[in-house]
Amino acid sequence: MDMYATFWALVPPIVAIVLALITKEVYSSLFVGIVVGGLFFSGFSFEGTLTHIFNDGFVAVLSDSYNVGIIIFLVILGSMVSLMNRAGGSAAFGRFAKKKIKTRAGAQLATIALGVLIFIDDYFNCLTVGSVMRPVTDQHRVSRAKLAFLIDSTAAPICIIAPISSWAAAVSGFVEGEDGFSIFISAIPYNFYALLTIVMMIGLVVLNVDFGSMKHYEKNALRGDLFSDPNHEKEEEPPASSKGRVIDLVIPILALIFCCVIGMIYTGGFFEGENFVTSFSNSDASVGLALGSVCAMLLTIIIYLLRRVLKFSECMECLPAGFKAMVPAILILTFAWTLKAMTDSLGAKEFVAAAMEQSAGAFMNLLPAIIFLVGCFLAFSTGTSWGTFGILIPIVVAVFAGTNHELMIISISACMAGAVCGDHCSPISDTTIMASAGAQCKHVNHVTTQLPYALLVSVISFITYIVAGFSQSALISLPVGIVLLLAALFAIRGLTPQNESV
């Protein structure tokens, strides 16, 4: 196949992303990208294209055990949200939070704080933070697009700097021949994209700054239109129980966190003698989250029945309702996974690995900045951070092993930061899709409003990696990045009129 391991391998996802941004139609754009990948792989054979798309694409990704576990987790999370709404827990929490959180800024800062606290897994973060904070941000007229941005920005960027997370386990596994966990810890101060994203979120809220299309969405939200979508129709939900209390939301969420942590360390061998950190590093997030969420849902149903806030029949009605709410996210995820399968079959990994190895020897001090850009582009095109880690980190270790340890750590951080940045920007990223689902925001709206913010942080991160490559000190480079970012926010605030806060 002439197109294998060439730039053509990255064309299908680029086509899908460009079409999605232009047409605002995600499903059709992803399908066109999948078809282009199938045509390239089969040499433009009709039969070969069809069999590759369905046998090696849709059927393969939907029979993959990891993907099935994530779908089960999604469905159960949707059902639990439906249960909490029906029991009146969400409404009660909304009333409680309204008394405690008085401002829009407070609602957004509370969303950020909760996102930082739930650092175990990005999927879990997106859906949990969304279900808890939606009533609060809605009451304070924060747009769903802004909520989706805050959720997305406290998912992968937090997980990639949290030592106890599924992401830390993945990164540590890719650092062959070195102590992966200690390198992950050492790389945290150099993970500029993640750290600067947190700084920017807080800066946006405190300074009351918005720009790009997000400004339009926030302006409409202040007028009461949280979606800025004339075609949005609010679904009629069954009336919530009048017996609902705040504990009817808090207990299920705590049960979910506890059960998912137990589920993840169970899959990592904790109950077979491994310590907590090792078992978490060896965990299977898909199985652990599925097991934990099932246990949490059963516990929630039992509590609601004992408290008599819902009848058994009402609990059962919430199961298909939760599935229905997650269908758009599941459909987009399935298309995105299939598009990734098309890209993999065309040798995208091999193409990028070869290109990196050829250029690794030159521009040693500029290499962290170059690796950051490559990671951004690869993750943006493929929609996967972990795949990007798997390609770039072994190359970096091979280049720097035994020569410059500090520059190796900076470059590994650049791999991680670039992967998270590209994943953050990409419409076909599973984390971006989950954030849209968590906020119940139209996916394309989330992508287009988040992109200017992510691009600003990525530009400043790139400059900061240039500084880090020469200084090889986080104490010098990180403050430079923070100062540049805050200066940019102050400049934007001064140059553009801002929406009045309420």
Describe this structure in words.
This protein has 502 residues and is mostly helical. 76% of the residues lie in helices and 0% in strands. The chain is built from 24 helices and no strands. The chain has helices spanning 11-23, 26-42, 46-62, 65-87, 89-100, 104-117, 122-139, 144-153, 156-159, 166-174, 180-187, 192-207, 213-222, 247-267, 276-281, 285-307, 312-345, 348-359, 367-382, 385-400, 405-425, 430-439, 443-471, 474-495. Helix 14 packs antiparallel against helix 16 and helix 20 (385-400) runs antiparallel to helix 21 (405-425). The termini are far apart. The mean pLDDT is 86.
**How does the helix and strand content classify structurally?**
mainly alpha
**Strand fraction band?**
under 5%
As residue ranges, the low-confidence spans are none
C-alpha Rg (nearest Å): 22 Å
- Number of alpha- plus pi-helical segments: 24
Q: Give the beta-strand count.
A: 0
Q: Distance between the terminal alpha carbons, to the nearest Å?
A: 59 Å
Shape estimate: globular
Helix proportion:
over 70%
The helix-strand sequence is HHHHHHHHHHHHHHHHHHHHHHHH
Q: What does the main sheet amount to?
A: none
On the 0 to 100 scale, the average pLDDT is: 86
